[in-house]
Amino acid sequence: MKDAFWKKEDIMTSEIKTVSTRQGVYRLGFWSAVSTAVLAAAAFAIGIATPARSGLFCTGSCITYPYTDVTLFIPGDYLWLVPGFLLAFSFVVLMACIHSYAADNRKIYGQIGLAFALVYAALIATDYFLQFTVVIPSLLTGETAGLSLFTEYNPHGIFIALEGVGYFMMSAALLSVAVVFSGGRLERAIRGLFIASFVLALGFFVGLSWLKYDIVAFEVAILTINWIVLIISGVLLNVLFRRAER
Predict the structure, then answer these.
(1) In the prediction, which pLDDT does 51 show?
(2) Which of 72, 122, 131, 191 is a plausible cystine mate for 181, CB 3.0–4.6 Å?
(3) Comparing C-alpha atoms, which of 55, 47, 171, 84 is closest to residue 119?
(4) Structure pTM?
C-alpha cells in the first residue's frame, strides 16, 4: 500500500511539474510574440519614414556610386536597423516557443521552422552588425576604400543580398511552423497567414526575372510582407499563448 501511495504521489508531482513547465513556455511565448510584433512594427514605421536615397525607389537627390557621401544621414538612415537587429533574437525565441507548443506528432515541423529561424537570425544579425561596427565608423572617418559593396545604399551590394535571403529564410520558417496550427479558428487564421506570407515571398522571388533581377524590389517586398505578418500574427499568438497558459 505504501509503495502504491508513493508511486501515485510521484506521478502527481511529475504532472504538476509538467503543467508548470508548459505554463512557463506559454508565458514566454506570449511575451516573445509581443516583442516580435512591437519590434516589427517599429522597424516598419521607421523604415517607411526613412526616404530611399538610392536604387529603384529613390525619387530625388539620389546618392550614386560609390555611395560614400552619406555622413549627413547618419544616424537617421540607420535607426530602423536597431529594431530589425533585435527582431532577429525575438523571432528565434518565438519559434522555439511554437516548437514547444506543438503536439508531439507535429514537433518536427516546429523544429524545422526553428532551424530556418536560426539561419535568418544569423544572416540578419551579421548583416546589420556590420553596418554598425564597420560601415558607419568607416564612413565617419573617411575610410571608404572598397566600402561601396557593403553599404546599405548600394542596390546591388552585399547588404541587400543578405537581407533578402535572410528574410526569405524567415518566410520558410513561418511556412514550416504553419503545420503546427490545426485547431480552432484562431489557429487556422495563424496557419493561413503563415502560408500566405511564404506564397507571396516566393512569388516575388520568382518575379525577379520580370523585375530585371532588381534585388531591391524583392527586398522591399519581402520586408513589407514579413513585417506585416509578424505584427498581425503577433497579436493572434498573444491570444493563443494566453489561452494555453490559462
Answers:
(1) 87
(2) 191
(3) 171
(4) 0.88
Average per-residue pLDDT in the chain? 89
Is the alpha carbon torsion for 134, 140, 146, 168 positive or negative? positive
C-alpha cell at 45: 514605421
Q: Residue 196 belongs to what domain range?
A: 18-245
Q: Give the integer Cα–Cα distance in Å for 203 and 37.
A: 24
- Number of domains, the chain: 1
Asked whether residue 3 is domain-assigned, the answer is no
